[in-house]
Amino acid sequence: MLQYLAMNRTSHLLLAQLGSLCLAAASIGCGDDGAAPTTCGTGTTLVDGACVADPGPTCGAGTTLENGVCVADGGATCGPGTVLTGDTCVSDPRAPGAVTALTAAVSGASINLSWTAGMGSTGSLVVRLVAGAADAPVAGQTYTVGGTLPGGSQVIAVGAATTFADAFTVPGRYSYMVWSINASGTYGFGREVAAATPLPAQAGVVALNLTNTTATVTTQPARVALAVANLAFITDHAEVELTITNNTAGPLFSPKVIATSLSLGTLGDPSGTTPGGDPYVLVALGALLPGESRSTTLIINGVTATDAVTLDLEVAESGFLITGSNAIAATGGGGILLDLVGVRGPTVEEPQFVDGAFSPSGRYYFGLTRWSTGLFRVDTSNGDVSGITPVSFGSGSGSCVEIAADGFAYVAHKLGAHKNKEGAGFAISRVDLASMTSVATSKLFPPSEERSSRCALRGNRMAVGYGAGAYFFNIGTMAFEDTVPGTTEIDGVALTNYVKTMVFNQDGTVLYAGGGDGNQLIEKVDAAYAVTAHHTTAAQRVWSLTTDAADVLWFGSNDGLYAFNGTTETKVPVVTTEVRTIVEIAGTAAKVVGGGDAYTVNVTTGATSERSGLPDESYMHHNAAWVK
Q1: What is the pTM of this model?
Q2: Cα–Cα 20 to 30 A to 344, which of 273, 313, 360, 487?
Q3: CA dist list (Å): 593 to 217, 241, 388, 451, 559
């Protein structure tokens, strides 16, 4: 898939360039003699006497093919909770409020959904989503239980109830969307929730008889079907094609085949090793949807042409990583190559994601890019963004995005072009992710001419780094906090260094900020906006900050991973390479990105596993996001 998408993007760029060259020479034609052409070369088509670039890809909803490139329609069709004003989708004042407190909990053979009705609603529409499908109800249309939305998602409940038990027989990931409905039949903003039902270990056994080159699946896993073919012995090793089919209820993210035991030989060219030390081969990057199949070639070293080999294996997920620019090729830990054809023109530099976050089910990734002016929605099942119109923020380049418990995203963006200090200031926009609509914006024009960088969110409190300062914001009231009451402007908190990373403590009363070039200075901003040096060890720079459930502060630096409890610094042993992103701290396991790898590290022993080599294009991987 990676090679295909990379080739696909490259071919579109070449086609556009060929078309431009051919059109530029229209006065002499595209042939050799200067006459109007009668035939055109590869990648071009004869149209009205001129060779033009072949049409580009088929465009998804919300985009139109223009000169071989999918471009946004500009909001011609608006989703639930919004209405078209001019050519822009804005919040619909007639719509009911979105449901709140939406939860999904597995109990026995049911997933119990619960929510609070949206303000002004008379009922709710509950839908079980189809993996990978962008779906929404059609405005003005009434749906009944058992019906489907245009994309195929099934309606499972309609009415005034605020709970529903969805029975299941097939384990896996289930995701749902709930919309409020009012008396006039107008839908509010949709809200998404997901639950993963228990999936047993997907263990199987494959028998390989090299004497007569037969391969047989002797034990099938419970929910992943195996098939083997094309067994061959080549000089000093055996090769067999293994196909897996997803028979669960949800996507399997970056599935891998783990060799738990081999009667003879060893697994060749493994993608990585599990925490237990078993080698594995990655089968597919991205998500394997229900019913889909993928194949890989297993290599068994250390066998002869007359051996019989028994392979005990297990199919599992690798996780799912998005990091850096559009070209992502993480292997062992999972990853995708984002297909950005159609989002940018062929002559514009490809976007680089600077920040982003996943939806509750992991189905979508919402990312900001350094060079563009919008928030993109990426379908994690195929890496496609071309079918979704980005949320535009005018001329301001994106800085950071946080998804709150209310279901909205809060995006900080500069009020001016990237690296352009003219028109200084920044804004925070509230974005509805289901309809991809900006529904509220608050702007701030600090006296300094800087640009916003990092942000953090805890509860209703958001902090944004702006140059060497921190500004605080209440997402509930969409208002900035005035750190110096009585002044004529909203003030920020002055910090020592340009902010590169920040995080709140667990209750949102304390902010930690770092980002010094060449030191490990971490500053603490308390509830009264007082600033103190929280950590001052003169060593390498701080790349990433996070707090764990016990409120211990962790930071990634050029020389490893550290924990700091306010008085004592503890360095994770063994790890000596840079840690740019601390994706997650869960007990003794930390998922981190840095030093050209994405991996899991035991914070007590320093042992690493699930290592994934990252390409040079992911140099911005201190902004990685990882879905489990």
Answers
A1: 0.76
A2: 360
A3: 37, 32, 28, 25, 13
